[in-house]
Each structure stands twice: as structure tokens, then as C-alpha cells.
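step=encode ok
step=design start
structure_in=
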């Protein structure tokens, strides 16, 4: 049954939030009535057979939802970067109403400096609005023309920040959607978008710290897409240095900081760059926040980091233990709240790792989860490769009739979507010829030929990206000689 907003919120309340609500509800009318409904709904959460949507009248449920939201706002008021500015704005109103003008002027001066450092121009405009009001009242001795100039500069900076952010989002979405593309025209399109971002940062006087972060982050992402791993890592580190300055000054809250660090770790992990996993995990776990959003990002990062580590070390047995001891529990708690983009990448990594274990049915089930995601267009590359690797799994399971049917539809799909590159063609051709061959020696010759053809792709600046998604060469090696997939991957990694 679909959960309503009230049930979803109740599911995500921490013990401290439940205690605070009971105290908060006592300050309102008819507290017992809503506390009773609150307790009944909490009890029903432990009973999977109960219909939570029928407990309490719709009007009472609506009121309780609003009461819970008010309670959470009060509990966390001023504890995040954004709400701290709202607290200051509320203080301005109180100080003005109480006639405490000298204290108000002092608070406005401090708030103005804080807004400039944080590049929070909307709050900066709010401070100027208060200063203009005090000048009008004759309380503050400032030239009104100077305030008007400051106001216009803030509006210009807001416009500049928006342009930078919009340009960064456009190129970031394009890079994420394409992944490590094998088409030259895709890279030309990305370069055009990066030039657009650079033009937004051209004017030094209008430059911003966030703009500097956007530029370094995008450059790092683009370098990753081009396969220039070391260059990409350097740009991403510069981006993180900029955002680290915000964190040190307490001008950015835990959620936003974790989101940036998650993006950094995520891109490094999926690019196959060797990370100090223990160090990164320790760094991630030191950040605590009462917000579920922070816990979700923290969990996402740890999962992505761990899966990347297992994959780079071909530690398939460790991966299986990780799934039982950590992943299953965390996924149950946070999996449904993670972004579709992250879910797609996690499903893909797990499908690959189960393939390494030789558990092909389990591998197919995870690729099926990826293919059933509503926003698979976010990662066309992983969507297509999931289909290819699923075909290989069914081939390994001996589902010859199914493989023959799917192979034809897959070929047509790749051709129709203009994603039929050399690598996919080699794999599909190999499976078709291998299945049709009846003599063992002939099968080995077919495998050796396919292996040689796919190894040649490493010399192609675009086609070589296929090896980022799966060890196709290692798999073909298992068909041409007696060697396990795990040993073939380890052998290849040792020679690279």
C-alpha cells in the first residue's frame, strides 16, 4: 500500500525527535488528543498488516502532520547553515519591535560580514533592507545612495551566481548522462558547455568562490569522462579545497558539505582511481547531523567507496560479507531515499561484483533492478551495459534459446539508439558464433579471435572506455583458456 506523507514522516523520526514532539505538542490545544493519535500511529508502524491510512480522521491527520513539521522546525532552528540566517532575520524583527536599536545596528553589521563571506546574497539584501529602514527612521547614519549601490551590486552577484550554477548544472547533467562516452561528438558538446561556464566566470570582479568550485568540479568530471584520471582527480581536489574553506568557517552545513564530498568520492570511485578507502570512510563518519539527508549521503558514500574498493582489488569474498553485515541493513533504512542516479550506480556495481563471484542469477537480478529504475535515461551507458552483461550472464547459465532471442533485440536496440560501438559488436558476434559452434577447438579459436579484437580497442582513445564498465577481455580469456574470471582480472591488473 502506498504510504501517505504522515506515515513517511513518522517512519523517519528519530527517538529524540519523537520525545521533542511530545513536549512540543503540550504547548498546543488538545495535546492529549494528538499525542494519542501520534502514539497509535507509531504502534501501527510495527504492525505490517495494519492500515495506517485509516487511523484517525483525515482532518486530524492533516493537523498532526503540520504539527510535526512545526516541531521539527523549532527543534532544528538555527542548527543548519540556512536556518541560521533565518534565526538572525527573526532576531532583527524582535530587536526592532523592542526598540533596541543599538543592538540591532551591531547585529546587522555582523550579519552583513557573514553574508559576504558565505556569498549569501539574498540574506545580504535583507540586511540592506533593514539598514535602509533604519536610515529612514533616522536611527542609522548612512548615505542612502551608498546603500542603493550596495543593493545593486548584490543583485548583480545573485544574477552571476545563478548563471554560474545553471551552466554548471547543464554540463554536470550531460557528463552524468553520457558517462564515459565513446562518441567524439559527445565530447565536443561537453566542451561547448564548459566554454559556456567559463564565459560566466570570465569577469574577475563578478567571480565567486562557488563559481570557482563549479569550474574545478566540472573540469574534474570532464577529465574523468575523457579517461584522464590523474587530471580529473587534481581538479576535483581543488574543488574540494574551495568547499573545505566554507566548512572551516561554518558557512556551509553538514548536509551540503557531505553532498560535495560524496560527489568527489563518487567520481573518483567510479573512475577506478585507487582511493585510501579507510581514510575516506573515517573522514566521512566523523560528520554527524540530526538530519536524515546527511545520513543518506553518508551511507551512499560509504557504499560507493566500498564497492569501488572491492572491485579494484577483486575482493569478491569481502564484498559478499559487506552485503550481509552492512549493505542489507543500510539499504533497508535508506535505499528508497537515495537519488536515482546513485541507485543506478550501486545496482550496476553490485551486479558486476556478483558476476565476479560466479553468481550469475544474482547478478542478473541486480541488473534487472537497474533496468526497472524510472530514470535510467540519467545513465544511458549503464543502462545499455546492464543489458549486455545480463546477456552474458544468461549465456553463462546456458539459457541458449533466451540468449538467441535477447541478442537480436539488444542488437536492434543499440543500433536504433546509435550506441552500437565496436566493443558491443564484438561481444554479440562472439556469443552468436560460440553458441553455433559444436567443436571445442572451434569455440576456442572463436574466443581467441574475439579476445584479440577487443584488446585492440585499448589503442582507440574512445572505444577503450568499454573496459571501464566491465572486464570484457578477462571474460573472453576464460573462454579461450582454462582460467577463472577472478584470476583473469587479477592477471590483467598485474600487467597494466
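sequence_out=
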Amino acid at each position: 500500500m502506498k504510504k501517505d506523507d504522515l506515515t513517511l514522516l513518522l517512519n523517519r523520526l528519530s527517538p529524540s525527535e519523537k520525545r521533542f514532539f511530545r513536549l512540543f505538542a503540550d504547548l498546543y490545544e488538545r495535546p492529549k488528543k494528538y499525542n494519542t493519535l501520534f502514539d497509535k500511529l507509531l504502534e501501527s508502524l510495527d504492525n505490517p498488516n495494519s492500515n495506517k491510512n485509516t487511523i484517525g480522521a483525515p482532518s486530524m491527520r492533516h493537523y498532526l502532520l503540520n504539527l510535526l513539521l512545526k516541531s521539527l522546525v523549532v527543534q532544528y532552528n538555527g542548527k543548519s547553515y540556512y536556518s541560521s540566517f533565518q534565526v538572525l532575520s527573526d532576531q532583527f524583527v524582535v530587536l526592532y519591535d523592542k526598540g533596541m536599536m543599538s543592538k540591532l545596528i551591531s547585529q546587522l553589521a555582523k550579519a552583513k560580514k557573514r553574508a559576504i563571506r558565505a556569498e549569501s546574497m539574498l540574506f545580504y539584501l535583507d540586511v540592506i533592507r533593514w539598514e535602509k529602514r533604519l536610515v529612514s527612521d533616522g536611527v542609522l547614519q548612512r548615505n542612502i545612495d551608498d546603500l542603493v549601490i550596495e543593493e545593486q551590486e548584490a543583485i548583480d552577484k545573485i544574477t552571476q551566481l545563478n548563471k554560474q550554477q545553471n551552466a554548471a548544472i547543464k554540463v554536470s547533467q550531460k557528463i552524468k548522462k553520457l558517462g564515459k562516452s565513446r562518441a567524439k561528438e559527445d565530447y565536443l558538446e561537453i566542451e561547448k558547455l564548459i566554454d559556456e561556464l567559463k564565459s560566466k566566470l570570465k569577469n574577475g570582479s563578478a567571480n565567486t568562490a562557488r563559481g570557482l568550485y563549479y569550474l574545478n568540479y566540472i573540469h574534474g568530471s570532464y577529465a574523468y569522462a575523457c579517461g584522464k584520471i590523474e587530471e580529473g582527480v587534481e581538479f576535483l581536489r581543488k574543488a574540494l579545497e574551495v568547499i573545505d574553506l566554507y566548512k572551516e568557517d561554518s558557512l556551509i552545513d553538514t548536509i551540503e558539505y557531505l553532498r560535495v564530498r560524496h560527489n568527489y568520492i563518487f567520481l573518483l570511485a567510479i573512475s577506478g582511481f585507487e582511493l585510501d578507502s579507510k581514510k575516506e570512510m573515517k573522514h566521512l563518519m566523523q560528520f554527524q547531523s540530526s538530519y536524515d539527508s546527511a545520513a543518506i549521503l553518508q551511507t551512499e558514500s560509504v557504499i560507493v567507496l566500498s564497492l569501488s574498493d572491492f572491485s579494484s582489488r577483486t575482493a569478491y569474498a569481502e564484498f559478499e560479507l559487506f552485503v550481509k553485515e552492512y549493505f542489507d541493513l543500510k539499504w533497508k533504512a535508506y535505499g528508497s531515499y537515495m537519488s536515482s542516479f546513485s541507485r543506478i550506480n550501486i545496482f550496476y556495481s553490485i551486479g558486476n561484483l556478483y558476476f565476479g563471484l560466479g553468481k550469475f542469477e544474482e547478478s542478473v537480478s541486480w541488473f534487472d533492478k537497474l533496468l526497472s529504475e524510472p530514470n535510467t535515461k540519467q545513465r544511458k551507458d549503464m543502462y545499455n551495459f546492464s543489458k549486455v552483461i545480463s546477456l552474458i550472464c544468461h549465456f553463462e547459465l546456458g539459457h541458449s534459446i533466451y540468449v538467441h532471442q535477447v541478442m537480436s533485440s539488444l542488437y536492434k536496440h543499440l543500433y536504433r539508439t546509435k550506441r552500437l560501438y565496436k566493443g558491443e559488436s564484438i561481444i554479440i558476434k562472439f556469443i552468436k558464433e560460440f553458441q553455433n559452434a559444436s567443436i571445442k577447438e572451434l569455440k576456442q579459436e572463436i574466443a581467441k579471435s574475439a579476445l584479440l579484437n577487443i584488446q585492440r580497442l585499448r589503442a582507440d582513445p574512445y572505444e577503450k572506455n568499454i573496459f571501464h564498465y566491465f572486464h570484457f577481455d578477462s571474460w573472453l580469456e576464460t573462454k579461450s583458456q582454462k582460467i577463472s574470471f577472478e584470476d583473469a582480472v587479477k592477471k590483467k591488473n598485474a600487467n597494466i
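step=design ok
step=annotate ok -> Residues 155 and 391 are 55 Å apart (CA to CA).
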